[in-house]
Amino acid sequence: MKTIRIGTRGSRLALVQTEMVCAALRRVHPDILPEICVVRTQGDILSDAPLDAIGGKGVFVKDIERELLSGTIDLAVHSLKDMQAVLPEGLTIGAYLKRENPQDMIFSQGNHTLDTLPEGSSLGTSSMRRRCQVRFLRPDLKIMEIRGNVPTRLKKVGDTVDAVLLAAAGVIRLDMPPGIPVDISSVIPSPGQGIIAVQSRIDNDAVNALLRVLDHGETRICAEAERTFLAALGQDCNLPAGAYATVGEDGILILGMLGTMDETRMERMSMKGTSPSVGDRLARALMERVHPETAP
Question: Which residues are bridge partners to 122 per DSSP?
Answer without folding.
Answer: 142
